[in-house]
Amino acid sequence: MEQLIPSSTVGVKINEWYKYIRMFAVPDAEILKAEVEEEIKHMKEDQDLLLYYSLMCFRHQLMLDYLEPKSLNEERPKISDLLEKIESSQTKLKGVLEYYCNFFRGMYEFDKKDYIKAIRSYKIAEKKLALVTDEIERAEFYFKMAEVYYHMKQTHVSMHYAEAALNIYKGQKTYTVRRIQCAFVVAGNFDDLESHEKAIPHLQKALKDSKAINKHKLIGASLYNLGNCYYKMKEYGKAAEYIEQAVSLYENDKSDLLPHTLFTLTQIYFKMKDIEKAFILYKKGIEKAQAINDDVLVAEFNYLKALYIDSIDKRTVFRTFSVLKDNVMYPDLEELALDTANYCKEIGQFENSTTFFAVMVDARIQIQRGECLYEI
Amino acid sequence: MEQLIPSSTVGVKINEWYKYIRMFAVPDAEILKAEVEEEIKHMKEDQDLLLYYSLMCFRHQLMLDYLEPKSLNEERPKISDLLEKIESSQTKLKGVLEYYCNFFRGMYEFDKKDYIKAIRSYKIAEKKLALVTDEIERAEFYFKMAEVYYHMKQTHVSMHYAEAALNIYKGQKTYTVRRIQCAFVVAGNFDDLESHEKAIPHLQKALKDSKAINKHKLIGASLYNLGNCYYKMKEYGKAAEYIEQAVSLYENDKSDLLPHTLFTLTQIYFKMKDIEKAFILYKKGIEKAQAINDDVLVAEFNYLKALYIDSIDKRTVFRTFSVLKDNVMYPDLEELALDTANYCKEIGQFENSTTFFAVMVDARIQIQRGECLYEI
């Protein structure tokens, strides 16, 4: 499968192109333009990026127009005068370009996990946004910020932006998809605040809206998130109900989300002590995971069998944990280690239980440390 | 001891006073002014609040000046015209007042733990700040934001503001105290990112600067924070060294921070297995805690004896945990439960260990939940 280029990388390249445009460095600008166009062909789809690209094409053309050949008698204008002339007549364009420039720089720094720099760029973008755009463009920005801060686990800041976005989308009938995505962010934040019960109504609404517009991906995500929420609340019956609906949908659609969803369902049935049903799901799930060569997921399925069927086969459990560590999947490691510790405690294997509690504590420390990649 | 009024409460009252001023409602404005002045007498010291107060007095006087008695022949101007007249000639004052108005509203909402609303107010204040103030005023705002977001555990956002504040204070010789306070915030954030080793250089610099200006409170805090950092890194020897220096300082100054600092030192010696020294500190510490009727700290000292001297007297341990729960001190509970679990594991009491691990896991959930007090 082709590895797609993230739009933030292309965005940063457009920033570079802009630099040359503002210097009237035509050959360099042309080269960058061609490179950007090549990269766009292999890029993950992103409407914002395409808008930024077309605005920059327009700006590129303005540069060319101002550089039309002069007759020998005419005086050649200074670059700074030209720049002034273009930018003073195109203040709105300039503002929007600066907005996108900082927005994509922020995305790029976010991808590199350089969070302080990312926040700095986003704040500059936000100021420009206030100058130049309409309500829906603002909502778009707020939504993106809600997403970004959610991934950084800056929960309260994320909630602030999600609320700001929702307040705008609420008044707009046509933005159902964004409203659903906002609901996912709000629900995710509530999960991080261990307030799963507050996430439920947002996800129920998301499910209803997704069905209304018949978007399978969003219906599936709503079902999965609802199931996951009930799972975290230890309401396994309800959890199984929703995840089973997600499984059916993904089976029909031949979705690549199926194997992972089967894993969650298998976990739930093991916790419900329905070993028979769980084992059937395990066999089906590991087969699917093997078919797509997903080694991590195969290891996770092996872990479930080692724990619940082979009465804690510690070698296999630790082998799975190694795989998760090698793939820097500490949140998964934390979850499985805690499950293992609790299960051992439940069946009276206390020494083993303390070993796995210690693994969990260590995983949490790694998660915290992992977010700290910058120097100050 | 008199319970001091938080400045955020007085700030919100000044906001109300401002509302009446802008309505030219003289009697109400006068009443609010008197109430504010009364509250300031019993308020925790806050330079920003006092500045806001004096600006508002000036604005109050402007209102009165414009309302001077007119002769019967003169036409009485409309309130809206008066307001327009004052505010258009005092745009800078208006901007600064709006800044403080939103800043204190944010502080007030922050105190109530309504974080989304607090963030919203801070963002409005920030916009006004850009319009009206000089560099040092901006640095003040950034520093406050760094503090606020640190307490909200929005670590990356806090780091962003701390860096912004530091960049301004760096160029200013006279702002040593603020530079030291910034270092504490940066170090605290690194602690939250489990990157204690990155906190050390900031605290070392803070210690050096505090000594240079001979501020005992800041020297003590630097020593304590350094000791705490090494404690978290399990470098107990170094930890003890710094905390001992803090203890000496607090003893000389008869500081009310002494009993708590003795508790930390006692913990360290127990972990170093220097039971004799630890027990001496325990006796000294619990006496001090009893003398000031600090029931929580007394309970925490009881816990140390129950764990390390009375070979895990579970009744006392759980009694201490109850006291912590009753006082909503879940971070303390989390720490002590983890210590207990690890200690039990170490001496082979595995069943007890799993019990305390479970207490720790539960405390973490309570911490997360506790931050979620708003509805969306």
UniProtKB/TrEMBL annotation, chains A, B:
The keyword Repeat applies. It is found in: Cytoplasm. It comes from the Bacteria. The keyword Cytoplasm applies. Gene3D superfamilies: Tetratricopeptide repeat domain. PROSITE patterns: TPR. Coiled coil: none annotated. Keywords: Cytoplasm, Repeat, TPR repeat. GO terms for cellular component: cytoplasm. TPR repeats lie at residues 220-253. PANTHER family: TETRATRICOPEPTIDE REPEAT PROTEIN 29 (PTHR46630:SF1). Belongs to the Rap family. This is RapA1.
